[in-house]
Design brief:
This protein is α+β, with helices and mostly antiparallel strands. It has a domain of 30 residues. A two-stranded antiparallel ribbon has the order 1-2. The longest helix is centred in the middle third of the chain and has 7 residues. The mean pLDDT is 79.
Length: 43
Amino acid sequence: MIEYGSVKRGLLGVMISDINQEIAEQLGLEITQKGHLFPKSFS
């Protein structure tokens, strides 16, 4: 607040992808595992 004279909010962004067969194989994951992959984040 001292520097800008007002509150400056931060921004966090993520890109979410499902884990498909090809990605699971590349990451060495078993097919029974489920989840999401965060290939990119930025602020």
